[in-house]
Amino acid sequence: MVVLSAALWLRSRLTDRFWRVQEVLKHARHFRGRKNRCYKLAVRSVRRALVKSTKARREKKRFLRALWITRIEAASLEHGLKYPAFISNLLKSQVELNRKMIADLAIYEPKTFKSLAALAQRRRQEGFLAALGDGKEPEGIFSRIVHHY
Amino acid sequence: RYVRQLQRLQLLFSPTAGDARGARQFVEEAALDFARQHPDVVLYISPRFGAAPLLLAEYLNGTVREELIANKTSEEIVQLATKLAGQSGLDIIRIRKPFHTDNPSVQGQWHPLTNKPSALTVRGPRLQAQ
């Protein structure tokens, strides 16, 4: 015959409570205070920690981008350019480097960054000449656009 | 050429315990085939009494991984052994960065004096004897 559930007089004891508790406490070992030892406090702290870590993945992208922008601003000010001028002129010269790479170049390849800053400066001057000079001067060299079709 | 990172596999089990039944079946049936398929891994089979059956994997960089094989069937042990044979001995933790270089800087890393005039750092030859 088919028995779907155990008989009513059959009792069972919980024997692996220790390991169930350890599964939670192992994620709380590096916390401060009693929440790294006491299960009741640790459950709340571990849940909050995991929730915060999921939400922080979206914030991390914003934070890193702000960090790169700060670094590029500092490096370009060393070469006499402000950040908006640097980035806009690089884009106009069709140099499509993202902020992460420019920040890494500024740290590890300072001479390359200096040449990028000089390029942006030159493109800026050509932009001013084109806007203010009114047609008599020849077009700037770095203002030419290359079409990749 | 590919060098297998797994050096040796030690199979420690008890000849009489009940939870080592899968290990004993593995030794009888599949151990020789496994050893022939992986000729560069040394397989040690040592019976010992009174302890849980273990599969010890030692790698070329020195890490030793112990896997419990109690109450596992012979096929599961074969799968586990092939998985260990394909691993390297690096720790299984979160990799912080997916890239690594030994030489991050070609032009010299930036320091606060890179873009300053060199009169600040360089002491030139003394022009007048002092």
TrEMBL record, chain A:
Gene that this sequence comes from: Mrpl20
GO biological process: translation
GO cellular component: ribonucleoprotein complex; ribosome
Family, as annotated: Belongs to the bacterial ribosomal protein bL20 family.
Organism: Spizaetus tyrannus
InterPro entries registered for this protein in UniProt: Ribosomal_bL20 (IPR005813), Ribosomal_protein_bL20_C (IPR035566)
Highest taxon listed in the record's lineage: Eukaryota
Molecular function (Gene Ontology), one example: rRNA binding
Record Gene3D superfamilies: 6.10.160.10, Ribosomal protein L20 (1.10.1900.20)
Entries under Pfam families matching the protein: Ribosomal_L20
Entry protein name: Large ribosomal subunit protein bL20m
Keyword annotations: Ribonucleoprotein, Ribosomal protein
UniProtKB/TrEMBL annotation, chain B:
Swiss-Prot/TrEMBL keywords: Mitochondrion, Ribonucleoprotein, Ribosomal protein
Compartments (UniProt record): Mitochondrion
Family, as annotated: Belongs to the mitochondrion-specific ribosomal protein mL43 family.
Entry coiled-coil feature ranges: none
Any one Gene Ontology molecular-function term assigned to this protein's record: structural constituent of ribosome
Pfam families from the UniProt entry: L51_S25_CI-B8 (PF05047)
GO aspect biological process, one term: mitochondrial translation
Protein name, entry field: Large ribosomal subunit protein mL43
SMART domains in alphabetical order: L51_S25_CI-B8
Organism expressing this protein natively: Spizaetus tyrannus
Chain intervals for the UniProt region annotation (Disordered): 101-130
Domain Ribosomal protein/NADH dehydrogenase: 15-88
GO cellular component, one term: mitochondrial large ribosomal subunit
Signal peptide: none
